[in-house]
Design goal:
alpha/beta; elongated; binds cytidine-5'-triphosphate; binds magnesium ion
Length: 383
Amino acid sequence: MKCAAIIVAAGKGERAGAVLPKQYAPLAGKAVLTYSVEACLSHPKISATFVVIGEGQEILAEEALRGLSVTDIVTGGAERQISVRQGLARAQGFDAVLIHDAARPFLPASVIDRLIEALAQPGCAGAVPVLPVVDTVARAQGSLGDGVDRTGLVRVQTPQAFPLPVIIAAHDAWSGAAATDDAQMVRAMGGEVRLVDGDIMLEKITQPTDFAEAERRLHMRFVSRTGMGFDVHRLQSDEELWLGGVLIPHHKGLAGHSDADVALHALTDALLGALGDGDIGAHFPPSDPQWRGAASHRFVEHAAHLVRHAGGIIDHVDLTLICEAPKIGPYREAMRTQIAAMLGVRIACVSVKATTTERLGFTGRGEGIAAQAVATIRLPLEH
Ligand code: CTP
Ligand code: MG
């Protein structure tokens, strides 16, 4: 099924009362429109993205879409329904379309997945994301009017997904007043529109206060995760001593398959742990000769890359080295600098600590060095 997305962004945003039409207003430094366009462009099941803009909005749209490879920009009309129709006319050749309001910036990939899955079912003339109505619903007549039974009521969001011929036929057949919702047109034609779970991230920006609410949701997009790592290597007289990416002059060094930087190994495991993606041995098997003598910064950099690839952010890492000797204090700042560079974070986000074990145990006897690490990262909710 070849799917296209049509993002309608041709409105004036009068109720939002912003200086610019709301879809071009900034949210955390980026235009509202940009967010949903990026979501569509990065979704593997959407092969084209059309953006419908209002006449005279060309410069605003160009700014909002700079650097993004949208398939085409189409001029819309005075009503949303006309704007959608213009977009549909450009989507010829696709099997299905997802019609989305630019005013709903945060479009989770999981909602797109659910819609496309529903659309693939036999007899499905469309699919919409819905949320339950949880508040008491009543008529407002100056004062409080009658309550409305909310059983079976849902709030309908976008994107709304349809087979292309079905939605084109529904628009052609529609004779009612200007429609704000495409699924109702399909229903009016007798089509069965399926319901999938919506998402609170998809709330529409309509009123002036919705911008602050959207910024809040933007920060909610991430969940915090913590991972821990632990590693031990044996001290030997014929080895170099690498700790935290720093070569330390010492009469013994750490033995291991790679450069045996115990601190960086614990750190790699902490990052992988926060990601829930196995451990260092799974990513860099000791049985693989290519890691013999490898510089361990490569392991840390790989784990940091995996966090970023998942859309995540590294907030903080904290390391504890456990040994009697050498003294770590003189090398602490050098280690922090090296690790911050490997992770692409500020030095303030890297902590290096050390402790002895009061001459007890293998670390106390100087037979080996142990390291513990904790990594705190943020991942997108949908991860
Ligand atoms: N839309 C559109 N063409 C129109 C009217 C609306 O493409 N002629 C788009 C809007 O840009 C928005 C979506 O349809 O992304 C939902 O409409 P709405 O929230 O009503 O936005 P506006 O019409 O811009 O806002 P208002 O009604 O407050 O003026
Ligand atoms: Mg409107």
